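User: Teach me something about this protein's shape.
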Amino acid sequence: MILAIDIGNTNIVLGCFDGKEIIFRERVSTKQWATDIEYASTIKMALDMNNVSRDDIDGAIISSVVPLVTAGVKVAVEKYVGVEPKIVGPGIKTGLSIMIDNPAQLGSDLVVDAVAGISEYPLPLIIIDMGTATTCSVIDKNRNYLGGIIATGMAVSTDALVSKTSQLPRIAFEVPKKVIGTNTVDSMKSGIMYSAACSIDGIVERIEEELGEKCTVVATGGLASTIIPLCKRDIILDDDLLLKGLMVIYEKNK
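Assistant: First, the predicted structure itself:
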C-alpha cells in the first residue's frame, strides 16, 4: 500500500492506495507548529481508524504548499511508517508540460491536480480546487499546463466579511431555501454560496471564450461539494483528485 499526503494551508488530506483503489481518505487540520511526533500520532490514528497496519505501507508521497509543515510530516512518516516519502517538487517526474512564465512558482497541489486530471478526464480541461484559495488550472488538448486563476477562497472571504462588520454573525455553509434572503443569516448564506457558484460559472465561460473551445470541467477541494451543485455549468465533482494525482506521480518515480 502507498500512503499519500497532501498538505494544504487549512487541511491535510491523508489517503492510502492499494494498487489504484483508494482504501481511505481522511482530512485533518493543518497545524504549522505541530511537532513530528504529533503528526506521527495523526498518521497512526488515521491508519488505525481504517484498519490499516503500518506494516502494510510500502511507500509514501507528500505534496505540500506549507513548507513549515513539510519537514515535520516527512519525519513523522519516516518514524512511524518506516519509509522515506517522495516529495512533489523540483526533480520529481510528473509528465506535465508547464507553460507558465516561471514553472517553479506553480504550487505542488496544482501540479498534482493537473497530473490527475490528464490521466482521468478528456482534454482540454479546467480544474477548480476550492480550498483556502479557489484556483482554476487550464490544461490544453496537448497536455500543456497553460496557467490559471487564483482567487480568495470562500471561507477566507466569509471570515473577512464577519471580521470587518460589527453585526454580521458567523454562519454555516448551508444552501438557503431561496436566493432572496428574508433575514440576515439567509441573506448571508445566499450571498456567499451563490456568488461563489456564479463566479465559477463565469470564470469557466471566459476561459472557454479565450481558448476558443469547450472544456471538461472538474472540481475538487474541501468546499467543492457544497458549491458545485449550485453551478449552472456541468462540472464533475472529484473529491479524490489530489490523491489520484499523488498515486500517478508515485508510479512515475518508482
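Now, about its shape. Residues 97-245 form a domain with the Nucleotidyltransferase; domain 5 fold (CATH 3.30.420.40). Residues 184-211 form the longest helix (28 residues). If you'd like, I can walk through any region in more detail.
User: That's plenty for now, thanks!
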